[in-house]
Amino acid sequence: MDTPNSVRKKGRSQPSQALLAKTFHWINIVSLFLMLSSGLQIYNANPVFGGRGGWTFPSAFTLGGWLGGGRNWHFAVMWFYCINLLLYGLYVVLTRRWNRRFVDSQDIKALQNSHNVKRKNYAWHRLVYTAIIPVLVLAIVSGLAMYKPAQFAWLSGLFGNWQILRTVHFITVPTVVLFTFLHSVLALKVGGLRLVNSMFLRGAGRV
Amino acid sequence: MFDQQLANYLRLQNRLSRRQMLQGAGFSGLGLLLGGCGTTLLSEPIGKVFDPLNGNLNALMLSNKPVPEFPVSAIEPDEKLLINTFDATPQIDPSKFQLTINGAVNNPLKLSIADLQTLPLTSMVIQHVCVEGWAAIVQWGGVRLSDLILLAKPKPNARYVYFKSADGYYESWDLASSLHPQTLMAYQRNGRPLSVDNGAPLRLASPIKLGYKQSKWVTQITLVDQLMPAKGYWEDLGYEWFGGI
Description:
The complex is a heterodimer.
Chain A: H1 4-10, H2 19-45, H3 67-94, H4 97-100, H5 105-113, H6 117-147, H7 153-158, H8 162-200
Chain B: H1 2-26, H2 30-33, H3 43-61, E1 99-103, E2 109-111, H4 113-118, E3 122-129, E4 135-144, H5 145-151, E5 160-165, E6 170-174, H6 175-178, E7 184-189, E8 192-193, E9 203-205, E10 218-224
Parallel strand pairs in B: 1-10
Antiparallel strand pairs in B: 1-2, 3-4, 4-7, 5-6, 5-10, 7-8, 7-9
């Protein structure tokens, strides 16, 4: 995303996104949606809270139709979700986007001291989308610890016990849902529909 | 053996069609409006592609190294190990029980409980992980399956192991997982003789496979060179075949 400054300098506000950023964003949204819905299907077989007889998610939120179907989806889409995130990680490190496109000390200062609402919104926006990255990684780490608890016994062990591990993995779901809401609101506040479109649509992309 | 497997397979087909009918009834109307949500949409073809991929990767990562065990103090109360059966609980007279080991072996065996108890007893405290998502830390005691397979002198072409249970349940494993040092034919749990609900007189127990792979009431172990169309009760309904953890 262009900073508000550069937008102002150009005199026209046409935000644009790198093609790789857009590709990551799309694959991430679709694979996360499938991981969440198939994950809730798996959840329903034995709810983290309450076990058998615990509250289950309505079938409108689940994917797969039954436990076996949910697992098929979950353990197929995990590859797309993980590889996409890995490639994105390499991309932001190699292109040094990590230094420019994510929350930094200037944003934190703005949040503490600035009276400029636009600058503060922009800082919040960068803070929120930076903060979701570790949650996306945590979903993989806790998922792997549950998927292969014998082969990765050391990793499962870090979580203390099975119930904690299941809870951590599950909590990534409401976190991602809340993030989606905040991220959408902040993106609209910062750049309106034009910013949102620049991330979703093909036109005017910086390659 | 093959007649029995065919009978199982046919019974399975019946169950499948009943299941599909029920699903068809449940997911009409609103379900259709919601598209993929709540349905089995594409889950079968996706499983057919990714189950072998994930299973083969798991098999590659499998080592003969024991999985770290838990201290005895970590054993959880008996009721944490939930009881799952696909059908009725069979009543087996332990004095008449015989475990048959046959198939691709040079020395087919029939072993009584007394015979099994003369073999070295292995005890382990491991985490039993169910496909449904729960887990329990359990102590199992029994005979290493690898000891039994070696006694039966497997032929070089043996690659898979079928397990037949008294209740009609059937399972198949890869040979490497069957020979893992923590794969047991167990007759003890949490320091006491195995209960009937948990698979007495003899069941599979292993930390490297999901619970549905660990057949209870095992009466027959058959080594084969290739998998049959019937791979396992739950696998034939759509669970992963390898089921490694």
